[in-house]
Amino acid sequence: MTRPDLRVGCCGFPVARARYFAAFRLVEVQHTFYEPPGLATLARWRAEAPPGFEFTLKAWQLVTHEPTSPTYRRLRTPIAADRRDRYGSFKPTPEVASAWRRTLECARALGARVIVFQCPASFAPTEEHVANLRRFFRSARAEAGEIVLGWEPRGDWPRSLVRDLCAELGLRPVLDPLAGKPYPGTWRYLRLHGRGGYRYRYSDADLREILPLCRGTTYVLFDDAADGRERAALSRPRRCAMSRRLRHRWDLSAQEAIALQQRLAPRVERRDRLGEVRTVAGVDASYDEARALALAAVAVLAFPELRPLDQAVARVPVTFPYVPGLLSFRELPAVLAAFERLTVRPDLVFSDGQGIAHPRRFGIASHLGLLLDLPTIGVAKTPARGRTPCTARPARGLDAAHRPGRADRRGGADAERGKTPLRFDRPPREPCERGTLDDGVHDALSPAGDDARSRPARR
């Protein structure tokens, strides 16, 4: 099954924009629904956002809602009493047309890809409303160009009518997946309002229910008031942004640790499915021998500009002895503790240590990537001994083909094919979790420039 292009964010900014930009890559702007900000303000928001950040927005309520709606309490634009019947419900009036043009200007100022038209329950599927809808979107669809127009009807709209109108008018259906089944297709826009009200607290079971509904490109927007727990988590510094793919005991003997490595090594993914890399992390660990502590530090940077986004440190008592080949059981408890303090989840991790270039193909980088369910690349200070994968990059001093080799203590490799002697001119990088060997070399060397160590891992 193809992995979905999942885009997750909030309806509105639940925290300061700078903090939100560090934690998410998508927001649905709500200001444009109540009273659109000035175009200069929206352009500034666009400039403040990091590269690759995506805006969508909600259409101005003057298009969709009539003045009897309580949402008009937040409207600052004056409406004359004798013209109140000319707003909302997609009416064919100059007032609605003007509100649509303002919405479109806002979308272009933000570089928004989607405009959402959310209708109140009072916008029922009457003949008049359907006629208004058709007339409005036949014009708006042509004016919007490449911007996607999403329609979220509420009330008793038959699914067949919604489906047919969307197909006829070039619209995308928008809905809450916990309140109704998504429409067929490989592009979906899901807005979660909470079961039974805006103060609903989502459970892991709810999220497991939503995930199978994500197909192709799927936007998942949580209402900014829907889950106070998530809002509080964003507001508190160092709240965990990481999830764990699996867990296991750490109080193991050396024999039990080796058996665990052998059992988990086949689960390491070596397929190329990195996706777009917008954030990278580097992690390293050291020891306080006097106090028997392991110290770990992780830094997250925006990619490719390598702008710092987040960092965390952790100190954890050392409980596992030094055993060659079992470094991860000594260092990873501290490394995981540091990751749990991040507010930004990286797309790619550089770990100081080996990955599959390990006697049991399960070094610390592979171990970390499997536990965190993150693509991870080993950035070792010294080559692994024994038979290891060797890769190529003539410009970087590496061989031009994937071939097994024997790494010596100086960093060289004697390739079996042709016995050609090679030398690494910088520490070896390797595929560890969710990446091919070429991915590992390319991504590790790209952030570093001519430096021997990748900058995220050195930060």
Q: Shape from CA axes?
A: elongated
Tell me the strand percentage band: 15-25%
The number of distinct β-strands equals 18
Helix content: 25-40%
Oligomeric state of the chains in view:
single chain
- State the end-to-end distance: 37 Å
Number of helices: 14
- Segments where pLDDT lies below 50 for 5+ residues? 225-240, 387-437, 448-454
What's the story with the biggest beta sheet? 8 strands, parallel, barrel
- Strand order of the main beta sheet, please? 1-2-3-4-5-6-7-8
Decide which structural class fits the backbone: alpha/beta
Radius of gyration, in angstroms, nearest whole number: 27 Å
Average pLDDT rating:
79
How do the strands and helices of this protein lay out in sequence?
Elements: E1 5-11, H1 17-23, E2 26-29, H2 31-34, H3 39-48, E3 54-58, H4 61-64, H5 94-110, E4 114-118, H6 127-144, E5 148-152, H7 159-169, E6 172-175, E7 187-192, H8 204-210, E8 217-223, H9 228-235, H10 254-264, E9 279-288, E10 293-302, E11 308-317, H11 327-339, E12 348-351, H12 364-372, E13 376-379, E14 386-390, E15 403-407, E16 412-415, E17 421-423, E18 429-433, H13 437-448, H14 455-458
Helix pairs in contact: 3-5, 11-12
Walk me through this protein's architecture:
This protein has 14 helices and 18 strands. The protein is α/β, with parallel strands linked by helices. Helix 3 (39-48) packs parallel to helix 5 and helix 11 (327-339) packs parallel to helix 12. The radius of gyration is 27 Å and the shape is elongated. The model is unreliable at 225-240, 387-437 and 448-454 (pLDDT under 50).
